[in-house]
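User: quick one, fold this
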Amino acid sequence: MNITLVKALLAMVLISIFFSGSLVLFLRGRTLGSFLQLLGAGCLVMVVLTHFCEARHLFPWMRWGDQHSAGHYLDLASAVLGLTLFPVGYLIHALF
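Assistant:
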């Protein structure tokens, strides 16, 4: 079995918990913090989906795993946004 696929599926479990918790928080009270947290969790879901597509060799024109490819930059941008927006949203929600 492909190790990248196993990692993606295990990460999907954790990220799904983050995303569903953020969605419930956003639906209860639509605040800036809950919106940023939901957006960050959505970006982290995108990271997991890109790794799943890489492992299953879906969309070969994205050239998954190659540097300077569309798949690489989609994964990188989603990871940076997710790891920035999720904690910022959590912090704003906790403080206000």
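User: anything notable?
Assistant: The helical segments are 3-28, 32-56, 70-95.
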